[in-house]
Every structure is written in structure tokens, then in C-alpha cells.
């Protein structure tokens, strides 16, 4: 155990920056890509039925899953930030309190979420845009995703906490367990047992139960600091306020994504269910580009939090700078690959000419912000890590709410369906520019100021060593 703690201390405080970023980010990226596969699985296997209405139903109910992730991200990201800073301060009691709080809060919110879904299902699906053709498919999905809510929220939050302890590999394993189970169970429930969209939700919930069991084992048997003990649970001493306020930007980002998806679906359903099915496919396909860079940013968040907590401003800046350059390179390569393979990617999900035609146009529009979106995620994580949660919250609100939703209405009025399709990329570029302005001001005020920032840029320019 002492050897493991020594390695974790070296990783966080003194390891070569590119290597430390690689150690932390690679498992996080893999976990993010596993999440992408996990999210793609339902749409992919439902698409193999050849029924655009079932694909549209999954697209219409997607805001439910996104909203669950909003709570998971709030507890997970907020908890991991508090935990990382507590580790940097050598405050083990606070580490245990934070991890216990995240566990019980996630389960409680999941139970409340499930109850609300079941009690108010009909009006919820009506708001989402379900019509006579898609209602039963959407209802079948919602019923079975509801009872899995506590496991979905906690397993996602737990992955952040485990990663923050320095156990990136174990966090990745937990994510892979849920994804592999979902991919294996999807065709069984959807096609073999003929459950369609309901089968997709059953597979998703069962996969998260399996992931939750793994994380429970890790907390109880393998971790030397994390706790799920009720004795360690508390919301006092800033645990509740710091976790929720720090995780709030990420939660708002996800919650507003849910709202904007509802608005987008309501706009598209006017043109028929084919565009709704297409946007569901494009949303899942484009997650590869977005989550690839989000995984990089999330992976280094514990490094940022630890070094800020320990007062090492130079190393903090080196991690931030190197991560941004990596995101840019990855974003450009991924976007180029997607541009070349647009139509095959859409046809991989469903071989319906009308849906494919809409999908190719939509995917092209969504890819435009691919090369630069990583800067937004790194800037937001950096702001959270130094305690500027308000600025990060503003960025979240702007990207998915204040800017996007009005822009969708404006562009639809000006350009019709084409305007709606390009709304997200226009918003992304505005958010990236604003995040750069906000972070540059905060960064200049940190210990060492601009000079330390230039030193960090030099320190982060090395290569990953063996």
C-alpha cells in the first residue's frame, strides 16, 4: 500500500508532465470512448430493426439519459475535485467524507428521478415530442430506464471518484463492464426476444447494475481511502456546498443539453420523424469527437486539482497547456476522419435512404466545431480546479442554453431546417472564444502569473517517456 501511495504521489506531484497526462488521460479517454460505445449501442441495435420510428423514439427519449448524467456529473466531477484537493492537502478524513456523500446522494437522486419518470411519464413524453407513431416505443424505453436510474447515476459518479484517487485503470474497467454488458445484452433483448426499444433500456439498466457492483467491490476491498460508510457521510464542513457548486457547471452543461435536445427534437418533428431519427444517430456518432476531447480534459482534472491544492502553479500550467495542444491535434484528426466517412457512418446505424440523407448533412454541420471543442472542456475544468466555479457555470449555461436555444429559433426562422442543423456549431465557437477570455483573466491572476504560464508551456512540450 505504501508503494502504491508513493507512486500516486509521484504521479500527481513530480512525474514528467506529458507522461503524467498520458497516465491519467489515456484510461479516461478509453472510458470516454467506452461511454460513446455504450451510448451508441442502443441506437445501433435498434437501428438494425430497420424501423426509423423506433430509432426516432430512442432519439426522443435521449434527454432522459442526459439528465441522469447531469446529476452523475455534478456529484462525480464535484466530488472528484474536492477529493483531489483533499488528497493534495493530505486530509484523508475529508476524502472519505466526500466519497461517502457522493454515493448516498447519487442513489437518493436516482430513486427520486425514477419515481418522477413513472408518475409523470405521459406529459414528459408529450413535451419530448412523441407522437402517435412513436409514443409506444418511447414509453417502453422510458419505463425500463427508470428503474435503472439509481445505478446509472451512481456508477457514472463513482468512476470520477475512483479516477480521482489515482486508480484510472480501475475506473476504466468499471466503465467497460457496463458497456460490454450493454453491447452483449442489446441484441438479445432487442432482436432475439423482440423487445425493441424496451429491450434497449433493459440492457442499459442491467449493464449499469453490473458496473455498480464492480465499483462497490472496489470501494470495499481495494481502495485505501474511499468510503461508502454511513459513519463517514456528512454534508457539513463545506462537503455539500463545495461538491455541488464545483460540479454544478458540468451538471448544468448536461441538463441544458437535455433541454436543448428536447427543443431540437420539437423543431425537427415538424419535418417528420426521419429528421428526428437522423439527429439521434448524428448525436451519438458525433459523441466520438466530443467525448474524445472531453475524456482528455476530465482525465487531467485530478492533476489540476492536486497541483492547485498543493500550491504548484508551474506544474498546474504545464498540465493545462500540454492537454490543450493534445486536444487540438486529436480534434483535427478525428474530424478529418469523420468527414471522409460521413455516409458509411450513418449507414452503419440504419440503411434508410431518407434518414441517411438527413444524417450526412447534419453530421457535416456538427463536425465543424470538432477541432476546437476540447479547448472549452479544458478551460472549464481548469476554472473548476482553481475554485472559479461561477465562470465555468456561465460557460455551461451559455453553450447549452442562453446561446444555443435562441440561436436555434433564430436560425430556423432565417434558414429553416438548415439553420437548425448548424445551430450547435455556431454556438460551440462562441463558447470556445468566451472560455478563452475568461480563463486567460483567471490564469493571469494565479501565483506566477503570465511568466509561470510561459514556463509551463515550455515544460509541457516534451514527449511521453517510457
- Along the chain, the helix and strand elements come as HHHHHHHHHHHHHHHHHHH
The global form is globular
Overall number of strands = 0
Query: What's the number of domains?
Result: 1
Classification by helices and strands: mainly alpha
Radius of gyration: 21 Å
Helix content: over 70%
Distance between the termini: 23 Å
Low-confidence stretches: 450-466
Number of helical elements:
19
Describe the biggest sheet? none
β-strand amount = under 5%
Mean pLDDT: 84
Describe the structure.
With 466 residues, this protein is mostly helical. Helix content is 84%, strand content 0%. The protein has one domain (2-459). The chain has helices at 2-13, 17-47, 52-88, 92-119, 121-128, 135-146, 149-164, 168-192, 196-222, 239-268, 273-309, 313-340, 342-349, 353-367, 373-385, 389-402, 404-415, 417-444, 449-459. The longest helix has 37 residues, at 52-88. The radius of gyration is 21 Å and the shape is globular. The two termini are 23 Å apart. Its main location: membrane. InterPro entries: MATE_fam, MATE_MepA-like, MATE_MepA_subfamily, MdtK-like.
Record keyword descriptors for this entry:
single chain, about 475 residues, mainly alpha, about 0% strand, disordered C terminus, transmembrane helix
Helix-strand blueprint:
Layout lengths: L1 H12 L3 H31 L4 H37 L3 H28 L1 H8 L6 H12 L2 H16 L3 H25 L3 H27 L16 H30 L4 H37 L3 H28 L1 H8 L3 H15 L5 H13 L3 H14 L1 H12 L1 H28 L4 H11 L7
Helix pairs in contact: 2-3, 2-8, 2-9, 2-11, 2-12, 3-4, 3-6, 3-7, 3-10, 3-11, 4-6, 4-7, 5-6, 6-9, 7-8, 7-9, 8-9, 10-16, 10-17, 11-12, 11-14, 11-15, 12-15, 12-19, 13-14, 14-18, 15-16, 15-18, 16-18, 17-18
Main location: membrane
GO molecular function, one term: xenobiotic transmembrane transporter activity
GO biological process, one term: response to antibiotic
